[in-house]
Write a structure and sequence with these properties.
The complex is a heterodimer of chains A (380) and B (82). Helices cover 30% and strands 28% of the residues of chain A. Chain A is of the alpha/beta class. In chain A, helix 1 (13-24) packs parallel to helix 9 (340-355). With 82 residues, chain B is mainly beta. In chain B, strand 3 (35-36) and strand 4 (42-43) form a beta hairpin. At the A-B interface, loops of A face strand 6 of B.
C-alpha cells in the first residue's frame, strides 16, 4: 500500500494546479484520475482569465489568480495558447452603461486596470458589433488560455517535482486517510483532497449542483473579434440561480477561431446538446454581432459547471461537511462554477497555504467549506 | 455545359476560365491552393463533392466557402483562404 502526504482526486485544472503547488512545496503527492487529465469541465470551458467583481471575495480571488497566471506566463508552453486579449464588457443601453461606470469604480478601488469606452470607441475596438450599443468597459489585462494544455502543464510540473499520476481507475472510496480505486489499489495519505468538480459521489451532500453549458466553435476568421466580448447582462444570467439563461459571450482564439457562448441550465444531467437553448444562445449572439450569421460553426459541445449556492468555491478542510463522523483527512477544492480556469492557480496557493500553515496573500475565510456547515444544521 | 469563358480575379490576377467550371477547378488549373492549413500547408479540393471541406476559399468576400460547390461567374473575386 502506497503512503503519501496528499492524495488528490481529480486531475482537472484545479487538481493539477494543486498537485503542482503541493509537490513544489516538497509534499509527496498522488493524483487519481479515472479518465484522462483535464477531460471534464476543464476541456469544456472557454479558458477566459477574467477578473469578476460580483462579490468582494470573488474579486479578490480572481484578481489574485490572474496575477499568479501572469507570474507563470513566461513558463507556459506555446500549447497553452495564452493571449492577453483583454475583456470588453458590452453595455447595450444607458442602464447597463451605469453599471459600466460602477464596475470601473470597483476596478479602480481594487487596483484592476480598466477603461470606459463610449459608443465610437467600442465600435472601433470591435467593428463587427452592431451599431447603437451604449459602450463598454475594457479590462486589458484579462486573457485567454487553452485549458486542457494548461492543466497538462501544471500536471507535468507536479510530476517533475515528484508527484505520481494514477490514471485509468477512478477512486471509489475516500475516507479517514484511505483511498481505494476501482481496480483495487489502496492508498493511504495524511490528507485526501477532493478536486472532482461537480462529481460529488465520494462525499454526497456537498453544496454543489451541476450547471450545464453549451459552447460552439467556428472555423478560422482572424481579426473578426479582437477581445473577449461579454454582455453586461451576463451577470444577470450568471446570477439567476434557478431558470435557464443565455448570454452573449464570444472569444477569439489564436487560430482565428471563435468560441461562442453561453448558456446556463440547472437540474439537467443530459450531456447532449439541445436545439432550443442553442437557438436562444445563437440568437443572443446575433443580436450583438449580426455578422456571426455568415460564419461556419464546426463543433458544438456541452459541459457541467460545479455551482455552489453563494457562487464561491470550496477551498479548505471539509470540516463539518463530512457528515456525522468527523474526518479530518478530507479536504475540498471544488465548486468553481464558470471560474475554474481563472481561479485554479490562486486556489492552489490558498489550499497549499492552509495545508502548510503559511499566511495567504488574500483572506481565505470566504472560501472555507465550513461556511455551509451552519446552514446544514438548520435543516438537520 | 455553358459555352465560352468567364473572367475571374484569382489572388489578384485575372484568369479566363471555362464557363460552368467550379471555383475549385479554376483554382487547381491556375495552380493556386484553395486554402492554407493552420500549420501552413497548401490545400486543394479532395472529394470534390462538398464533404471534406479541404477546398474552402474566400469567394466575393465570404470566407470558408466550399469552392467545389460554387460555379464561376464573370467578375468573381476569389482568394486562397488563409
Amino acid at each position: 500500500m502506497k503512503n503519501l502526504d496528499v492524495v488528490i482526486i481529480g486531475a482537472g485544472i484545479v487538481g493539477c494546479a494543486c498537485a503542482r503547488e503541493l509537490s513544489l512545496a516538497g509534499l509527496r503527492v498522488g493524483v487519481v484520475e479515472g479518465k484522462s487529465p483535464g477531460c471534464g469541465a476543464t476541456a469544456a470551458g472557454m479558458g477566459h482569465l477574467v477578473v469578476m467583481d460580483d462579490s468582494p471575495a470573488q474579486l479578490a480571488l480572481t484578481h489574485y489568480s490572474r496575477s499568479v497566471w501572469s507570474e507563470l506566463m513566461a513558463e507556459l508552453p506555446g500549447s497553452v495558447e495564452y493571449e492577453a486579449c483583454g475583456t470588453i464588457w458590452v453595455a447595450a443601453d444607458e442602464e447597463e452603461m451605469a453599471e459600466v461606470h460602477n464596475k470601473s469604480r470597483i476596478c479602480a478601488a481594487a487596483g484592476v486596470q480598466a477603461s470606459v469606452l463610449g459608443p465610437a470607441e467600442l465600435s472601433k475596438a470591435e467593428p463587427h458589433l452592431r451599431g447603437g450599443l451604449a459602450g463598454g468597459l475594457l479590462v486589458p489585462d484579462d486573457g485567454v488560455v487553452y485549458p486542457p494544455a494548461a492543466a497538462d502543464f501544471f500536471l507535468q510540473e507536479a510530476v517533475q517535482a515528484g508527484a505520481e499520476l494514477l490514471q485509468g481507475s477512478e477512486a471509489v472510496f475516500a475516507s479517514q486517510g484511505m483511498v481505494r480505486l476501482a481496480n483495487g489499489t489502496k492508498l493511504t495519505a495524511g490528507r485526501i483532497l477532493l478536486a472532482a468538480g461537480a462529481d460529488c459521489s465520494l462525499l454526497p451532500g456537498l453544496p454543489i449542483r451541476r450547471r450545464k453549458g453549451h459552447l460552439l466553435i467556428t472555423d478560422r476568421y482572424p481579426g473578426f473579434v479582437n477581445h473577449q466580448l461579454v454582455e453586461l447582462g451576463y451577470l444577470k444570467s450568471a446570477h439567476s440561480t434557478e431558470s435557464d439563461s443565455v448570454a452573449f459571450n464570444v472569444q477569439p482564439r489564436r487560430t482565428g477561431q471563435l468560441l461562442i457562448g453561453s448558456s446556463r441550465q440547472f437540474d439537467n444531467d443530459d450531456s447532449r446538446a439541445e436545439t432550443k437553448i442553442v437557438g436562444q444562445m445563437l440568437e443572443r449572439a446575433l443580436a450583438y454581432m449580426p455578422g456571426l450569421g455568415q460564419l461556419s460553426g464546426l463543433r458544438l459541445w456541452t459541459g457541467f459547471r460545479a455551482a455552489t449556492p453563494d457562487k464561491l468555491p470550496l477551498i479548505g478542510p471539509a470540516g463539518a461537511l463530512t457528515g456525522e463522523v468527523a474526518d479530518p483527512s478530507l479536504w475540498l477544492v471544488a465548486g468553481f462554477e464558470g471560474l475554474g480556469i481563472t481561479n485554479a492557480p490562486g486556489a492552489a496557493r490558498l489550499l497549499a497555504d492552509q495545508m502548510l500553515s503559511r499566511t495567504s496573500v488574500i483572506d481565505p475565510q470566504p472560501f472555507l467549506p465550513n461556511r455551509f456547515a451552519a446552514q446544514e444544521a438548520v435543516y438537520a | 455545359m455553358p459555352d465560352g469563358t468567364v473572367m475571374i480575379f484569382l489572388n489578384g490576377g485575372s484568369v479566363a476560365v471555362a464557363a460552368g467550371s467550379t471555383v475549385a477547378a479554376a483554382m487547381l488549373n491556375a495552380g493556386q491552393p484553395c486554402r492554407i492549413s493552420v500549420t501552413g500547408e497548401a490545400r486543394t479540393a479532395l472529394c470534390g463533392m462538398g464533404i471534406c471541406f479541404e477546398c474552402r476559399a474566400l469567394i466575393d468576400g465570404r470566407a470558408h466557402r466550399r469552392s467545389c460547390q460554387v460555379v464561376v461567374r464573370d467578375g468573381m473575386i476569389v482568394e486562397t483562404q488563409r
